[in-house]
Amino acid sequence: MAALIGRDLLSLADLSPTELQELLQLATQLKSQQLQLQCNKVLGLLFSKASTRTRVSFTVAMYQLGGQVIDLNPNVTQVSRGEPVQDTARVLDRYLDILAIRTFAQQELETFANYAQIPVINALTDLEHPCQVLADLLTIQECFGTLAGLTLTYVGDGNNVANSLMLGCALVGMNVKIATPSGYEPNASIVEQARASANNKTEVILTHDPEFAAKGAAVLYTDVWASMGQETEVDDRLPIFQPYQISEPLLSLADPKAIVLHCLPAHRGEEITEAVLEGSQSRVWQQAENRLHAQKALLASILGAK
Question: Is the pLDDT score of 178 beyond 70?
């Protein structure tokens, strides 16, 4: 993965189809311990949003590579006192080898990347969640042995996960259907970007009909109906999104061998039922574990681990 050394990952669109496939292959080798890599580097985590899986998986991945991690909680750094992003970026650039950022605005992430010479990884913004989708694709590949030609259906809010799923599926040759209520569609420019990447070889379909989207799908995927920063909208969203719940009746419309994914945390009884989340077709816990392996592959590739 020499091609990724020193590069940022701000969006899945930063990867070519070949680079994405090679990342997934490396993650598979690291997970099976066919390959062991070492990298004595320092990763900084600058997270302005709450995190469990992303924070822990990045930390464990870096430790397993032989590196170190500094948790740069904004509440105890000068970021919380209004230090400009460009100043923080130029200082951290002189201390760290790589920086993973979880924040609200994609523009803030891009500003960090512009002012820091070290690689910057998008650990979630309101626009995209590329590291999550690396783990999602790894999970799907483990379950089906391939990605090309499969159909993934995402049901719910057209949020950052939906945006990154469209880009990721297009890069690996999967069809993707996004079913949302009217007015909650994914980012229009990313839809066009994904369709351009698919190049008419696969489909990127938007619909307001969850049953249409679920029919024959190999993967049913959902996320919370109100993301971080949208907590005040929860009560208004619940009745709007209720028809988009992944339930046993909706799952019955998918391929009989379909799997169910959820990026977590899950609100049982809202976007997914308890029966489906804990059912035999759920691969949610395998998906969560794969955050570790996918991000370890990403870190190893960007840092040139050997």
Answer: yes
158 in Cβ contact with 147 (< 8 Å): no
Q: The tokens of 254 are what? A: 């998918």
Burial (CB count within 10 angstroms: exposed 0-12, middle 13-18, buried 19+), residue 81: exposed
What is the 8-class DSSP label of residue 16? -
- Cα separation, 273 vs 278, whole angstroms: 9
Residues labelled as active-site residues = 102, 129, 132, 223, 263, 291
Summarize the chain as % helix, strand, coil (round to 5). Answer: 45, 15, 40
Of 154, 164, 158, 123, which is closest to residue 291 (Cα–Cα)?
Answer: 123
pTM score of the predicted model? 0.96
Phi, psi of 185, deg, nearest 5: -70, 160
Residues in contact with 35: Cβ distance below 8 Å, sequence separation at least 6, in sequence order? 26, 29
Partners of 122 in beta bridges: 101
Whole-angstrom distance, CA of residue 172 vs CA of residue 17: 6
Higher pLDDT, residue 1 or 282: 282
Dihedral pair phi/psi, residue 176, rounded to 5°: -140, 135
Q: Which two tokens stand for residue 218?
A: 């190999």
Sheet-wide strand order for 259-262: 204-207, 175-179, 151-155, 219-222, 259-262
Distance CA 252, CA 128 (A): 30
CB of 98 closer than 8 Å to CB of 303: yes
Average pLDDT over residues 71-87: 85
10 Å Cβ neighbour count for 25?
A: 15
Q: Once rounded to an integer, what is the mean pLDDT over residues 59-83?
A: 90
CA pair distance 207, 155, nearest whole angstrom: 10
**DSSP code, position 179:** E
Question: Residue 100 half-sphere exposure, CB side, CA atoms within 13 Å?
Answer: 27
